[in-house]
Every structure is written in structure tokens, then in C-alpha cells.
Amino acid sequence: PGSRGWCGGGIYFATTPEATKTKAIGADSHTGFMIEARVDVGKALLMPATCDRSMTGLKLASKGFDSVKFNPGDGDEYIVYSGARVISTKHYGKR
Prior knowledge:
Elements: E1 11-14, H1 20-23, E2 33-39, E3 44-46, H2 57-62, E4 67-70, E5 77-80, E6 86-94
Parallel strand pairs: 3-4
Antiparallel strand pairs: 1-5, 2-6, 4-5
């Protein structure tokens, strides 16, 4: 997982390839390749647009959830806190 983000240090997923154009906005974004992933989000906790920057996998599990779903204003995102929830990936060439 990552070390920081709107919902803490997790692995963030957009719901469509097109959505990554507004979501992957870090300094190093839009320079690599796209990964299509199948993710087991389990029971998702719906969070407000500001989410919780201190969220962790342990904190989430203590609330009875497996992932976070939130919309920062440009569409839904899902966040998991363990790579074990990523079932499969497919890599695509440079965007």
C-alpha cells in the first residue's frame, strides 16, 4: 500500500480508465502505464469527499469493513489496504 492519500496509505482504484485522467494527478502521474485490476473490495465503507487521511487497514477492519469507497468530487474511488485484495492485474502500454 501507499503511504498517504485522502483516505490514508492504501491502494487506490478508479472505476474506469477514463477516470484516471482526473485522478492520477501526482507529479509522476500520466508517465507510466495503465493497470486494469480485479479487486475484492468486500464490504466497503462509504466515506465523505474529505475521507480520513489517518485511515489504515486495521482501523477499517475494527469498524467491520474491508475497503473504502469515496468520491472526492470527480467520481468514485475504492481503496484497499492490502495487496492480497488485488485478485488479478493486466498491464497496458503507455498512456
